[in-house]
Protein backbone atom coordinates (compact mmCIF):
# COMPACT_ATOMS: atom_id res chain seq x y z
CA UNK A 1 0.00 0.00 0.00
CA UNK A 2 1.65 3.18 -1.23
CA UNK A 3 0.44 6.59 -0.02
CA UNK A 4 0.83 9.40 -2.56
CA UNK A 5 -0.56 12.43 -0.72
CA UNK A 6 -1.93 13.54 2.64
CA UNK A 7 -3.89 16.65 3.56
CA UNK A 8 -5.90 17.60 6.65
CA UNK A 9 -8.74 20.08 7.03
CA UNK A 10 -11.73 20.55 9.34
CA UNK A 11 -10.47 17.77 11.60
CA UNK A 12 -10.30 15.11 8.85
CA UNK A 13 -7.19 13.66 7.20
CA UNK A 14 -7.44 12.59 3.55
CA UNK A 15 -4.79 10.23 2.15
CA UNK A 16 -4.61 9.07 -1.46
CA UNK A 17 -3.04 5.65 -2.03
CA UNK A 18 -2.47 2.83 -4.49
CA UNK A 19 -2.79 -0.82 -3.53
CA UNK A 20 -1.22 -2.58 -6.52
CA UNK A 21 -3.29 -1.18 -9.42
CA UNK A 22 -6.21 -0.01 -7.21
CA UNK A 23 -6.37 3.76 -6.58
CA UNK A 24 -8.03 4.74 -3.32
CA UNK A 25 -8.59 7.39 -0.67
CA UNK A 26 -8.66 7.00 3.09
CA UNK A 27 -10.37 9.50 5.39
CA UNK A 28 -9.72 9.39 9.15
CA UNK A 29 -10.19 11.81 12.03
CA UNK A 30 -7.12 14.07 12.21
CA UNK A 31 -4.48 12.64 14.58
CA UNK A 32 -6.45 9.36 14.78
CA UNK A 33 -4.69 6.58 16.73
CA UNK A 34 -5.84 3.01 17.32
CA UNK A 35 -8.70 0.82 16.15
CA UNK A 36 -11.96 2.33 14.90
CA UNK A 37 -14.98 1.28 12.79
CA UNK A 38 -14.31 1.34 9.04
CA UNK A 39 -16.76 2.19 6.26
CA UNK A 40 -16.15 0.98 2.70
CA UNK A 41 -17.67 3.59 0.38
CA UNK A 42 -18.67 2.52 -3.14
CA UNK A 43 -19.39 5.10 -5.85
CA UNK A 44 -22.09 5.26 -8.53
CA UNK A 45 -21.82 4.22 -12.20
CA UNK A 46 -19.68 6.55 -14.33
CA UNK A 47 -18.47 8.29 -11.14
CA UNK A 48 -15.25 7.84 -9.18
CA UNK A 49 -13.84 7.64 -5.65
CA UNK A 50 -13.78 11.42 -5.14
CA UNK A 51 -17.15 12.31 -6.68
CA UNK A 52 -18.49 15.26 -4.64
CA UNK A 53 -21.25 13.25 -2.95
CA UNK A 54 -18.73 10.61 -1.92
CA UNK A 55 -16.26 13.08 -0.46
CA UNK A 56 -18.93 14.96 1.45
CA UNK A 57 -20.31 11.73 2.93
CA UNK A 58 -16.84 10.39 3.75
CA UNK A 59 -15.84 13.58 5.57
CA UNK A 60 -19.07 13.54 7.63
CA UNK A 61 -18.45 9.94 8.64
CA UNK A 62 -14.77 10.60 9.45
CA UNK A 63 -15.69 13.67 11.49
CA UNK A 64 -17.85 11.28 13.53
CA UNK A 65 -14.87 9.05 14.34
CA UNK A 66 -15.01 6.51 11.51
CA UNK A 67 -12.29 5.55 9.06
CA UNK A 68 -13.67 5.65 5.50
CA UNK A 69 -12.08 4.18 2.39
CA UNK A 70 -13.17 4.65 -1.23
CA UNK A 71 -11.65 3.08 -4.33
CA UNK A 72 -12.23 3.55 -8.03
CA UNK A 73 -14.39 0.69 -9.32
CA UNK A 74 -12.93 -1.32 -12.21
CA UNK A 75 -12.81 0.79 -15.41
CA UNK A 76 -13.76 3.94 -13.44
CA UNK A 77 -11.92 7.04 -12.24
CA UNK A 78 -8.14 6.77 -12.49
CA UNK A 79 -8.21 3.16 -13.67
CA UNK A 80 -7.70 2.16 -17.32
CA UNK A 81 -10.77 1.33 -19.43
CA UNK A 82 -10.04 -1.66 -21.67
CA UNK A 83 -11.66 -2.15 -25.06
CA UNK A 84 -14.02 -4.85 -23.84
CA UNK A 85 -15.44 -2.54 -21.17
CA UNK A 86 -15.78 0.23 -23.76
CA UNK A 87 -17.90 -2.11 -25.89
CA UNK A 88 -20.05 -3.08 -22.87
CA UNK A 89 -20.60 0.57 -21.92
CA UNK A 90 -21.47 1.49 -25.51
CA UNK A 91 -23.93 -1.42 -25.59
CA UNK A 92 -25.55 -0.16 -22.39
CA UNK A 93 -25.97 3.35 -23.79
CA UNK A 94 -27.34 2.01 -27.08
CA UNK A 95 -29.78 -0.28 -25.25
CA UNK A 96 -31.04 2.58 -23.09
CA UNK A 97 -31.46 4.77 -26.17
CA UNK A 98 -33.39 1.94 -27.86
CA UNK A 99 -35.78 1.71 -24.91
CA UNK A 100 -34.60 -1.66 -23.57
CA UNK A 101 -35.25 -2.54 -19.89
CA UNK A 102 -32.75 -0.39 -17.93
CA UNK A 103 -32.81 -2.87 -15.03
CA UNK A 104 -31.52 -5.69 -17.22
CA UNK A 105 -28.94 -3.50 -18.97
CA UNK A 106 -27.54 -2.09 -15.73
CA UNK A 107 -27.51 -5.53 -14.11
CA UNK A 108 -25.48 -6.85 -17.05
CA UNK A 109 -22.90 -4.08 -16.60
CA UNK A 110 -22.67 -4.63 -12.84
CA UNK A 111 -22.34 -8.37 -13.37
CA UNK A 112 -19.27 -7.75 -15.57
CA UNK A 113 -17.62 -5.58 -12.94
CA UNK A 114 -18.58 -7.44 -9.75
CA UNK A 115 -15.96 -10.24 -9.60
CA UNK A 116 -13.07 -7.75 -9.93
CA UNK A 117 -14.76 -5.22 -7.59
CA UNK A 118 -15.30 -7.82 -4.86
CA UNK A 119 -11.66 -8.96 -5.01
CA UNK A 120 -10.47 -5.33 -4.95
CA UNK A 121 -12.54 -4.48 -1.88
CA UNK A 122 -11.38 -7.59 -0.03
CA UNK A 123 -7.72 -6.72 -0.67
CA UNK A 124 -8.22 -3.07 0.30
CA UNK A 125 -10.10 -4.02 3.48
CA UNK A 126 -7.25 -6.29 4.58
CA UNK A 127 -4.60 -3.66 3.77
CA UNK A 128 -6.39 -0.73 5.40
CA UNK A 129 -7.04 -2.66 8.61
CA UNK A 130 -3.25 -3.14 8.96
CA UNK A 131 -2.86 0.64 9.43
CA UNK A 132 -2.40 1.85 12.99
CA UNK A 133 -5.15 4.50 12.70
CA UNK A 134 -7.73 1.94 11.41
CA UNK A 135 -7.00 -1.48 12.94
CA UNK A 136 -9.23 -4.55 12.91
CA UNK A 137 -12.51 -3.01 14.06
CA UNK A 138 -16.09 -3.51 12.85
CA UNK A 139 -16.70 -2.85 9.13
CA UNK A 140 -19.66 -1.37 7.23
CA UNK A 141 -20.35 -0.88 3.53
CA UNK A 142 -22.12 2.08 1.95
CA UNK A 143 -23.03 2.27 -1.73
CA UNK A 144 -25.97 3.45 -3.84
CA UNK A 145 -26.88 2.63 -7.43
CA UNK A 146 -23.78 0.89 -8.94
CA UNK A 147 -22.29 1.06 -5.43
CA UNK A 148 -25.24 -1.09 -4.35
CA UNK A 149 -24.95 -3.41 -7.35
CA UNK A 150 -21.28 -4.12 -6.61
CA UNK A 151 -21.79 -4.02 -2.84
CA UNK A 152 -24.41 -6.77 -2.65
CA UNK A 153 -22.09 -9.52 -4.00
CA UNK A 154 -19.31 -8.15 -1.77
CA UNK A 155 -21.42 -8.27 1.40
CA UNK A 156 -22.76 -11.71 0.48
CA UNK A 157 -19.17 -12.95 0.15
CA UNK A 158 -17.50 -11.07 3.00
CA UNK A 159 -18.25 -11.93 6.64
CA UNK A 160 -16.17 -9.00 7.91
CA UNK A 161 -18.93 -6.56 6.79
CA UNK A 162 -21.46 -6.22 9.62
CA UNK A 163 -23.87 -3.48 8.44
CA UNK A 164 -24.69 -1.78 5.14
CA UNK A 165 -26.36 1.28 3.64
CA UNK A 166 -27.59 0.44 0.13
CA UNK A 167 -30.22 1.52 -2.37
CA UNK A 168 -31.12 3.34 -5.60
CA UNK A 169 -31.18 0.05 -7.49
CA UNK A 170 -33.67 -2.63 -8.50
CA UNK A 171 -33.66 -6.38 -7.92
CA UNK A 172 -32.54 -7.37 -11.43
CA UNK A 173 -29.73 -9.96 -11.17
CA UNK A 174 -29.32 -9.45 -7.42
CA UNK A 175 -31.98 -11.62 -5.78
CA UNK A 176 -29.58 -14.48 -5.00
CA UNK A 177 -26.95 -12.26 -3.40
CA UNK A 178 -29.63 -10.37 -1.47
CA UNK A 179 -30.98 -13.64 -0.09
CA UNK A 180 -27.52 -14.36 1.40
CA UNK A 181 -27.32 -11.03 3.25
CA UNK A 182 -28.29 -11.14 6.92
CA UNK A 183 -26.56 -8.06 8.38
CA UNK A 184 -28.59 -4.94 9.28
CA UNK A 185 -29.32 -2.88 6.16
CA UNK A 186 -30.54 0.67 5.59
CA UNK A 187 -32.04 0.76 2.08
CA UNK A 188 -32.67 4.06 0.29
CA UNK A 189 -35.33 4.54 -2.38
CA UNK A 190 -36.00 7.70 -4.39
CA UNK A 191 -39.76 7.72 -4.83
CA UNK A 192 -39.65 9.33 -8.31
CA UNK A 193 -36.44 7.64 -9.51
CA UNK A 194 -36.30 8.04 -13.28
CA UNK A 195 -33.77 5.18 -13.61
CA UNK A 196 -35.09 2.56 -11.19
CA UNK A 197 -38.78 1.54 -11.25
CA UNK A 198 -40.29 1.71 -7.77
CA UNK A 199 -41.51 -1.89 -7.76
CA UNK A 200 -38.01 -3.17 -8.62
CA UNK A 201 -36.54 -1.18 -5.69
CA UNK A 202 -39.14 -2.57 -3.30
CA UNK A 203 -38.46 -6.08 -4.63
CA UNK A 204 -34.74 -5.73 -3.86
CA UNK A 205 -35.56 -4.58 -0.31
CA UNK A 206 -37.91 -7.57 -0.03
CA UNK A 207 -35.21 -9.96 -1.22
CA UNK A 208 -32.72 -9.08 1.57
CA UNK A 209 -32.65 -11.86 4.17
CA UNK A 210 -31.72 -9.44 6.99
CA UNK A 211 -34.11 -9.48 9.94
CA UNK A 212 -33.19 -5.85 10.63
CA UNK A 213 -33.64 -3.83 7.47
CA UNK A 214 -35.25 -0.42 7.05
CA UNK A 215 -36.33 1.19 3.80
CA UNK A 216 -36.18 4.99 3.64
CA UNK A 217 -38.07 6.50 0.69
CA UNK A 218 -37.92 10.20 -0.20
CA UNK A 219 -39.50 12.17 -3.03
CA UNK A 220 -37.35 13.11 -6.01
CA UNK A 221 -35.19 11.60 -8.71
CA UNK A 222 -32.17 9.28 -8.69
CA UNK A 223 -29.72 11.98 -7.59
CA UNK A 224 -31.96 13.78 -5.11
CA UNK A 225 -31.30 11.85 -1.87
CA UNK A 226 -31.76 14.47 0.87
CA UNK A 227 -28.74 15.44 2.94
CA UNK A 228 -30.39 14.41 6.21
CA UNK A 229 -30.14 10.79 5.03
CA UNK A 230 -26.33 11.08 5.22
CA UNK A 231 -26.43 12.03 8.90
CA UNK A 232 -29.09 9.39 9.51
CA UNK A 233 -26.88 6.73 7.91
CA UNK A 234 -23.95 7.82 10.11
CA UNK A 235 -26.12 7.17 13.17
CA UNK A 236 -27.14 3.80 11.66
CA UNK A 237 -23.47 2.82 11.36
CA UNK A 238 -22.71 4.17 14.84
CA UNK A 239 -25.54 2.04 16.25
CA UNK A 240 -24.30 -1.15 14.59
CA UNK A 241 -20.53 -0.66 14.51
CA UNK A 242 -19.96 1.78 17.36
CA UNK B 1 -58.05 22.99 32.45
CA UNK B 2 -58.06 21.05 35.70
CA UNK B 3 -54.99 19.08 36.80
CA UNK B 4 -55.79 15.98 38.86
CA UNK B 5 -52.34 14.52 39.61
CA UNK B 6 -48.65 15.20 39.14
CA UNK B 7 -45.66 12.86 39.49
CA UNK B 8 -42.03 13.18 38.42
CA UNK B 9 -39.49 10.47 37.69
CA UNK B 10 -36.36 10.12 35.58
CA UNK B 11 -36.37 13.84 34.84
CA UNK B 12 -39.91 13.89 33.39
CA UNK B 13 -43.06 15.33 35.01
CA UNK B 14 -46.38 13.64 34.19
CA UNK B 15 -49.62 15.56 34.87
CA UNK B 16 -53.12 14.18 34.35
CA UNK B 17 -55.80 16.73 33.51
CA UNK B 18 -59.33 17.27 32.27
CA UNK B 19 -60.26 19.98 29.80
CA UNK B 20 -64.06 20.03 30.01
CA UNK B 21 -64.92 16.39 29.25
CA UNK B 22 -61.54 15.57 27.60
CA UNK B 23 -59.14 13.51 29.79
CA UNK B 24 -55.47 14.08 29.02
CA UNK B 25 -51.86 13.75 30.16
CA UNK B 26 -49.05 16.26 29.81
CA UNK B 27 -45.39 15.28 29.98
CA UNK B 28 -42.68 17.95 30.35
CA UNK B 29 -39.05 17.96 31.42
CA UNK B 30 -38.90 18.16 35.24
CA UNK B 31 -38.69 21.78 36.41
CA UNK B 32 -39.40 23.00 32.85
CA UNK B 33 -39.87 26.76 32.53
CA UNK B 34 -40.72 28.76 29.43
CA UNK B 35 -41.69 28.02 25.85
CA UNK B 36 -40.76 24.73 24.19
CA UNK B 37 -41.85 22.63 21.19
CA UNK B 38 -45.04 20.64 21.81
CA UNK B 39 -45.94 17.20 20.43
CA UNK B 40 -49.58 16.10 20.23
CA UNK B 41 -49.60 12.32 20.65
CA UNK B 42 -52.55 10.35 19.23
CA UNK B 43 -53.16 6.73 20.30
CA UNK B 44 -54.25 3.68 18.30
CA UNK B 45 -57.74 2.23 17.91
CA UNK B 46 -59.08 0.55 21.05
CA UNK B 47 -56.15 1.99 23.03
CA UNK B 48 -55.98 5.04 25.28
CA UNK B 49 -53.79 8.00 26.25
CA UNK B 50 -51.55 5.98 28.58
CA UNK B 51 -51.12 2.84 26.46
CA UNK B 52 -47.58 1.59 27.19
CA UNK B 53 -46.21 2.51 23.76
CA UNK B 54 -47.60 6.03 24.11
CA UNK B 55 -46.13 6.59 27.57
CA UNK B 56 -42.72 5.26 26.58
CA UNK B 57 -42.62 7.49 23.48
CA UNK B 58 -43.89 10.54 25.39
CA UNK B 59 -41.26 10.16 28.11
CA UNK B 60 -38.47 9.85 25.51
CA UNK B 61 -39.65 13.01 23.78
CA UNK B 62 -40.02 14.88 27.08
CA UNK B 63 -36.56 13.77 28.22
CA UNK B 64 -35.33 15.42 25.01
CA UNK B 65 -36.86 18.78 26.00
CA UNK B 66 -40.31 18.57 24.37
CA UNK B 67 -43.69 19.01 25.96
CA UNK B 68 -45.97 16.11 24.99
CA UNK B 69 -49.73 15.92 25.41
CA UNK B 70 -51.99 12.88 24.88
CA UNK B 71 -55.77 12.73 25.17
CA UNK B 72 -58.26 9.90 25.04
CA UNK B 73 -59.90 9.83 21.61
CA UNK B 74 -63.71 10.05 21.56
CA UNK B 75 -65.25 6.84 22.98
CA UNK B 76 -61.82 5.61 24.14
CA UNK B 77 -60.01 5.32 27.47
CA UNK B 78 -61.72 7.17 30.32
CA UNK B 79 -64.41 8.66 28.07
CA UNK B 80 -67.96 7.31 27.90
CA UNK B 81 -68.94 5.06 24.99
CA UNK B 82 -72.42 5.87 23.78
CA UNK B 83 -74.76 3.32 22.22
CA UNK B 84 -74.25 4.59 18.69
CA UNK B 85 -70.49 4.09 18.94
CA UNK B 86 -71.07 0.63 20.41
CA UNK B 87 -73.13 -0.25 17.33
CA UNK B 88 -70.43 1.13 15.00
CA UNK B 89 -67.69 -0.83 16.78
CA UNK B 90 -69.76 -4.02 16.68
CA UNK B 91 -70.37 -3.45 12.97
CA UNK B 92 -66.61 -3.08 12.41
CA UNK B 93 -65.88 -6.34 14.23
CA UNK B 94 -68.64 -8.16 12.37
CA UNK B 95 -67.42 -6.81 9.02
CA UNK B 96 -63.83 -7.91 9.72
CA UNK B 97 -65.08 -11.37 10.76
CA UNK B 98 -67.10 -11.56 7.53
CA UNK B 99 -63.99 -10.81 5.47
CA UNK B 100 -65.00 -7.30 4.32
CA UNK B 101 -62.27 -4.83 3.24
CA UNK B 102 -60.59 -3.76 6.51
CA UNK B 103 -59.48 -0.47 4.93
CA UNK B 104 -63.06 0.60 4.24
CA UNK B 105 -64.31 -0.57 7.64
CA UNK B 106 -61.56 1.21 9.56
CA UNK B 107 -61.98 4.36 7.47
CA UNK B 108 -65.69 4.38 8.32
CA UNK B 109 -64.92 4.18 12.02
CA UNK B 110 -62.29 6.94 11.84
CA UNK B 111 -64.67 9.12 9.82
CA UNK B 112 -67.21 8.90 12.66
CA UNK B 113 -64.65 9.95 15.27
CA UNK B 114 -62.71 12.58 13.34
CA UNK B 115 -64.90 15.71 13.69
CA UNK B 116 -65.00 15.37 17.51
CA UNK B 117 -61.30 14.38 17.68
CA UNK B 118 -60.20 17.40 15.63
CA UNK B 119 -62.19 19.80 17.82
CA UNK B 120 -60.80 18.17 20.98
CA UNK B 121 -57.21 18.49 19.80
CA UNK B 122 -57.67 22.13 18.81
CA UNK B 123 -59.08 22.98 22.24
CA UNK B 124 -56.34 21.05 24.06
CA UNK B 125 -53.62 22.67 21.96
CA UNK B 126 -54.88 26.13 22.82
CA UNK B 127 -55.20 25.31 26.52
CA UNK B 128 -51.83 23.60 26.87
CA UNK B 129 -49.98 26.43 25.13
CA UNK B 130 -51.31 28.79 27.85
CA UNK B 131 -49.23 26.93 30.45
CA UNK B 132 -45.97 28.56 31.51
CA UNK B 133 -43.92 25.37 30.95
CA UNK B 134 -45.26 24.93 27.36
CA UNK B 135 -45.96 28.34 25.84
CA UNK B 136 -46.68 29.14 22.20
CA UNK B 137 -43.83 27.27 20.53
CA UNK B 138 -43.75 25.09 17.39
CA UNK B 139 -46.15 22.12 17.36
CA UNK B 140 -45.86 18.59 15.96
CA UNK B 141 -48.32 15.70 15.75
CA UNK B 142 -47.47 12.02 16.18
CA UNK B 143 -49.96 9.20 15.63
CA UNK B 144 -50.02 5.75 14.05
CA UNK B 145 -52.94 3.64 12.86
CA UNK B 146 -56.09 5.32 14.27
CA UNK B 147 -53.77 8.07 15.53
CA UNK B 148 -52.90 8.64 11.85
CA UNK B 149 -56.51 8.40 10.71
CA UNK B 150 -57.60 11.09 13.17
CA UNK B 151 -54.37 13.06 12.78
CA UNK B 152 -54.62 13.63 9.03
CA UNK B 153 -57.89 15.66 9.20
CA UNK B 154 -56.46 17.52 12.20
CA UNK B 155 -53.23 18.48 10.42
CA UNK B 156 -55.15 19.42 7.28
CA UNK B 157 -57.33 21.77 9.36
CA UNK B 158 -54.74 23.13 11.79
CA UNK B 159 -52.01 25.53 10.62
CA UNK B 160 -50.32 25.49 14.04
CA UNK B 161 -49.02 21.94 13.36
CA UNK B 162 -45.68 22.18 11.54
CA UNK B 163 -44.42 18.57 11.32
CA UNK B 164 -45.91 15.10 11.75
CA UNK B 165 -44.99 11.47 12.31
CA UNK B 166 -47.73 9.26 10.88
CA UNK B 167 -48.25 5.76 9.48
CA UNK B 168 -49.59 2.22 9.93
CA UNK B 169 -52.67 3.10 7.89
CA UNK B 170 -53.89 2.94 4.30
CA UNK B 171 -55.26 5.62 2.01
CA UNK B 172 -58.95 4.67 2.34
CA UNK B 173 -61.02 7.81 2.98
CA UNK B 174 -57.94 9.98 3.57
CA UNK B 175 -56.74 11.04 0.11
CA UNK B 176 -58.38 14.48 0.26
CA UNK B 177 -56.98 15.35 3.68
CA UNK B 178 -53.56 14.03 2.68
CA UNK B 179 -53.57 16.25 -0.41
CA UNK B 180 -54.00 19.29 1.86
CA UNK B 181 -50.97 18.45 4.03
CA UNK B 182 -47.76 20.26 3.16
CA UNK B 183 -45.73 20.08 6.39
CA UNK B 184 -42.75 17.69 6.67
CA UNK B 185 -43.95 14.13 7.39
CA UNK B 186 -42.22 10.99 8.61
CA UNK B 187 -44.44 8.07 7.50
CA UNK B 188 -44.00 4.60 9.06
CA UNK B 189 -44.91 1.38 7.27
CA UNK B 190 -44.72 -2.14 8.69
CA UNK B 191 -43.70 -4.28 5.73
CA UNK B 192 -45.71 -7.33 6.85
CA UNK B 193 -48.65 -5.44 8.37
CA UNK B 194 -51.51 -7.91 8.78
CA UNK B 195 -54.08 -5.09 9.05
CA UNK B 196 -52.96 -2.62 6.38
CA UNK B 197 -52.18 -3.83 2.82
CA UNK B 198 -48.79 -2.56 1.69
CA UNK B 199 -50.08 -0.91 -1.47
CA UNK B 200 -52.66 1.08 0.53
CA UNK B 201 -49.90 2.34 2.86
CA UNK B 202 -47.74 3.37 -0.08
CA UNK B 203 -50.75 5.10 -1.65
CA UNK B 204 -51.33 7.17 1.49
CA UNK B 205 -47.65 8.22 1.49
CA UNK B 206 -48.03 9.09 -2.19
CA UNK B 207 -51.13 11.20 -1.49
CA UNK B 208 -49.39 13.54 0.97
CA UNK B 209 -48.70 16.89 -0.69
CA UNK B 210 -45.62 17.56 1.48
CA UNK B 211 -42.44 18.20 -0.47
CA UNK B 212 -40.45 16.82 2.46
CA UNK B 213 -41.82 13.42 3.39
CA UNK B 214 -39.90 10.25 4.20
CA UNK B 215 -41.29 6.74 4.34
CA UNK B 216 -39.61 4.34 6.79
CA UNK B 217 -40.53 0.69 6.26
CA UNK B 218 -39.47 -2.09 8.64
CA UNK B 219 -40.18 -5.82 8.62
CA UNK B 220 -42.87 -7.18 10.94
CA UNK B 221 -46.54 -6.82 11.76
CA UNK B 222 -48.74 -3.88 12.75
CA UNK B 223 -47.44 -3.70 16.32
CA UNK B 224 -43.78 -4.40 15.60
CA UNK B 225 -42.39 -0.90 14.90
CA UNK B 226 -38.77 -1.09 16.10
CA UNK B 227 -37.76 1.03 19.07
CA UNK B 228 -35.07 2.86 17.08
CA UNK B 229 -37.86 4.54 15.09
CA UNK B 230 -38.96 6.33 18.27
CA UNK B 231 -35.54 7.93 18.73
CA UNK B 232 -35.37 8.64 15.02
CA UNK B 233 -38.76 10.42 15.17
CA UNK B 234 -37.53 12.50 18.12
CA UNK B 235 -34.64 13.70 15.96
CA UNK B 236 -37.10 14.40 13.13
CA UNK B 237 -39.16 16.62 15.44
CA UNK B 238 -36.02 18.28 16.82
CA UNK B 239 -34.92 19.07 13.26
CA UNK B 240 -38.25 20.66 12.31
CA UNK B 241 -39.43 22.15 15.61
CA UNK B 242 -36.19 22.64 17.56
Topology:
2 copies of one chain form a homodimer.
Chain A: E1 2-9, E2 12-19, E3 22-29, E4 38-42, H1 52-63, E5 67-71, H2 83-97, H3 102-128, E6 139-143, H4 146-157, E7 161-167, H5 175-179, E8 185-190, H6 198-207, E9 213-218, H7 228-241
Parallel strand pairs in A: 4-5, 4-6, 6-7, 7-8, 8-9
Antiparallel strand pairs in A: 1-2, 2-3, 3-5
Helix pairs in contact in A: 2-3, 3-4
Rounded average pLDDT of chain A: 96
CATH architectural grouping of chain A: 3-Layer(aba) Sandwich
Specify the overall morphology of chain A.
globular
| Assembly classification | homodimer
Summarize the structure.
By secondary structure, the first copy, chain A, is of the alpha/beta class. Chain A contains seven helices and nine strands; from the N terminus they run ββββαβααβαβαβαβα. The first copy, chain A, has a single domain (2-241), classed as Rossmann fold (3-Layer(aba) Sandwich), CATH 3.40.50.1820.
